[in-house]
Write a structure and sequence with these properties.
The chain is α/β, with parallel strands linked by helices. It has helices at residues 8-28, 44-60, 75-87, 106-112, 124-132, 140-151, 171-180, 195-199, 245-248, 263-282, and strands spanning 4-5, 34-40, 63-69, 93-96, 160-164, 184-188, 204-207, 225-228, 232-233, 239-240, 254-255. The structure holds NADP nicotinamide-adenine-dinucleotide phosphate (NAP).
Length: 283
């Protein structure tokens, strides 16, 4: 039997409607959520992401600022910009679009963002809070994965979840969130032997690797939930995930398509984080 498709766009639209309702309530109390996105240089993919973030802000009625600075901007100039927005009261979220030009140290920039406004969830204190289970702004793509699971009735509690990939922005936080949701979690990476065997034991398989169509049907337990975080551009210009979607479709119980699965959730969770931060600032 063919897997049920998890349409991230639909789920993301539902969440945005819920957010809109909350934003209206907050505005009645005199607070408008504010997000600033800082883009250094002219990377074409980053330009698209930044435009989409600004569009989402407009749709939800947020105050939005997009600051575009040239690729030659120095680290000190960028840090000064962050200090300015750390102090600016109508801004509740600061996002510096990654990747940054090579002469700027990414860690120094992430560390400089006030943890209260760290809507990307990459600040070491946010990561620490996630680890110890304290309240935190959670990284957007990983929390989007958890929303997709919960909102399709696939609660991670008591399940064996296998995460392939251990990056700081996808694999590790996804694994930590699954653990927090009471899954039993196994993390695999490029040095893991027999990955297909481990993957085949998963009730929930989350893949964030960056290798097109790595996961085949013999990696998947019949009926498993397969969440594909990967986004890869093929030579013909089409996008595909890290899961061989057509191959796995008949084995999995649930599956996310690429595009249209995890992708649409990321900006929506960024909007949710900005709202959360605005509510916190309101007290
Ligand atoms: P990354 O930093 O390059 O990390 C990739 C991870 O995959 C590493 O942990 C690596 O292991 C592991 N890996 C690489 N090849 C492997 C293999 N053959 N078998 C098993 N593990 C392997 O990538 P990332 O930033 O996490 O992104 C992963 C994918 O998610 C990319 O396609 C990216 O475009 C996509 N992504 C999508 C969204 C979204 O919004 N949908 C957001 C972020 C990322 P080692 O640690 O051992 O090197």
């Amino acid at each position: 039997m063919s897997a049920q498709i998890i349409y991230g766009k639909q789920i993301s639209d539902t969440i945005r409607e819920e957010l809109l309702h909350e934003v209206e309530q907050l505005k009645q109390q005199g607070v408008t959520p504010g997000l600033v996105v800082i883009l250094v240089g002219e990377d074409p993919a980053s330009q698209v992401y930044v435009r989409n973030k600004a569009k989402a802000c407009e749709q939800l009625g947020y105050h939005s600022e997009v600051i575009r600075v040239p690729a030659e901007t120095t680290q000190d100039e960028l840090l000064a910009l962050i200090t300015k927005y750390n102090e600016q009261q109508n801004i509740h979220g600061i996002l510096v679009q990654l990747p940054l030009p090579k002469h700027i140290e990414e860690k120094a920039i992430i560390d400089a963002i006030s943890v209260e406004k760290d809507v990307d969830g990459f600040h070491p204190e946010s990561v620490g809070n996630l680890m110890i289970g304290d309240d935190a702004l959670l990284p957007c793509t990983p929390s989007g994965v958890i929303e997709l699971l919960k909102r399709t009735g696939n609660s991670p509690a008591g399940k064996h979840a296998v995460v392939i990939g251990r990056s700081n922005i996808v694999g590790k936080p996804v694994a930590m969130l699954l653990l927090r949701e009471n899954a039993t979690v196994t993390i695999c990476h490029s040095r893991t032997p027999n990955i297909s065997e481990i993957a085949r034991q998963a009730d929930i398989l989350v893949v964030g690797v960056g290798v097109p169509k790595l996961v085949k049907k013999d990696w998947v337990k019949p009926g498993a939930v397969v969440i594909d975080v990967g986004v890869n551009r093929l030579l013909d210009g089409k996008l595909c995930g890290d899961v061989d979607y057509d191959d796995v479709l008949d084995v999995a119980g649930w599956i996310t398509p690429v595009p249209g699965g995890v992708g649409p959730m990321t900006i929506t969770m960024l909007m949710a984080n900005t709202l959360k931060s605005a509510k916190k600032a309101r007290g």
